[in-house]
Amino acid sequence: MISAYTGSQIRQAEKPYLSAGAGAVLMQRAAYGLANAVVRELKTRGIRPYGASVVVLAGKGNNGGDGLFAAA
């Protein structure tokens, strides 16, 4: 099973950072974590990550921004 936090838990944890104006840092960290998770997943499937094609479907809002940042 994969553990996950609720939206409320994430908002509560992010609140001090957002209040301090560190929203961009949070987005960078989320994007870095997502990109690393994709690389790990590719490797477990026997796919070399460098040169591989990956599709990112990103919606609106901050999570969409995280996805776009990770795709870059």
Structure notes:
The protein contains 3 helices and no strands. With 72 residues, the protein is mainly alpha-helical. The chain has a domain at 27-72. α2 packs across α3 (62-71). The chain is globular and about 40 Å long. The mean pLDDT is 89.
Brief account:
The chain has 72 residues and is mostly helical. The chain has a domain at 27-72. It has three helices and no strands.
Summarize model confidence as the mean pLDDT. Answer: 89
C-alpha termini separation: 29 Å
- Spans of at least 5 consecutive residues whose pLDDT stays below 50 are none
If you compute it from the alpha carbons, what radius of gyration comes out, rounded to the nearest whole angstrom? Answer: 14 Å
How many β-strands, per DSSP?
0
Quickly give the structural class: mainly alpha
Helical content (DSSP H or I, runs of 4+): 55-70%
Largest sheet: none
- Global shape: globular
Q: Determine the number of helices (DSSP H or I, runs of at least 4 residues).
A: 3
Order of helices and strands: HHH
Could you tell me the strand content as a percent range?
under 5%
Write the layout of secondary structure elements.
Blueprint: H1 7-19, H2 23-44, H3 62-71
Helix pairs in contact: 2-3
